[in-house]
Amino acid sequence: MSRKGDYGFDAPYILIIFACGVVGSIALLVLGTVLSNPWLTSFSAWGIAIDAICGLSFLYATRVGKHVVWGRLVDELALHGDETVVDVGCGRGAVLLLAAARLPRGKAIGIDIWSAMDQSGNAEAVTRRNAELEGVVERIELVTADMRAIPLPDGSADVIVSSLAIHNISSAAERAKALAEILRVLRPGGRFTIVDIQHARSYVSELERLGATVIRRGLGPRLWFGGPFVAASAVIGTKP
Fold it and tell me: Does 12 score more than 80 pLDDT?
């Protein structure tokens, strides 16, 4: 999938951790070789392989896989082109602008606090520049706000999407507030698609408790952020 914008890296510190793991394992491999210690040599070789595979998996997911998977998820929404779509935790606009491209008569609203810890180089100006590059700047609106207090009226959105954002809230109770806000902003019958690497089962439980119809599904190796143990899944549903 060809994108004209630059969408950075999700959680860039994770790549640094994997790189440090490879470097540390290489040092152990050298030490094991010098000491003629087969156990240390074998252990460090496995460390190099695991960290390298996980790092490459993460790199692919954040730079390529995310765009492919979300392209398909947005296609599945079958937008008519006149909807209001809200992206909760929009970051540099990877999903927001995919939606905007399908809204010639609608609007895509991105909500974010612009944390560079959660996404490299995350800033409102960067997202707007990406929108210009993708040719959709007139279709978007960017709002600086916490997802637990979305400054939009009740029932004002037809569709809400969120990519790898809600898990950044550490408290389960506070994540529940974000999910309640998503349903509040959605119109009756509105749809949501949430992709995340943690807490998806709890999202399903909470959204069902709030009355939504929800399904959860895996998204395959394109969204393995460090191997199958850090796999993203989608929570898809409809507001009653």
Answer: yes
Q: What confidence score (pLDDT) does residue 237 get? A: 98
Say which DSSP state 163 is in.
Answer: E
Reported in sequence order, the residue ranges of 63-156 that DSSP labels E, i.e. its strands, are 84-88, 107-112, 140-144
Alpha helices in 35-171 (DSSP H): 38-60, 66-76, 96-100, 124-134
- Which of 164, 99, 90 shows the shortest CA–CA distance to 124? 90
CA distance 17 to 183: 36
* Cα 56 to Cα 64: distance, rounded to the nearest angstrom: 11
Burial (Cβ within 10 Å: 0-12, 13-18, ≥19) of residue 128: middle
Q: 173 near 44, Cβ under 8 Å?
A: no
CA–centroid distance for 69 within its chain: 11
Rounded mean pLDDT of 66-90? 97
Quickly tell me which residue has 């998503």 as its tokens: 182
User: Would you kindly state where each structural domain of the chain is located, as residue ranges?
Assistant: 12-61, 79-238
Which fold would CATH assign to domain 79-238?
Answer: Rossmann fold (3.40.50)
d(CA 200, CA 217): 9
Q: Which two tokens stand for residue 22?
A: 């490879």
d(CA 96, CA 87): 6
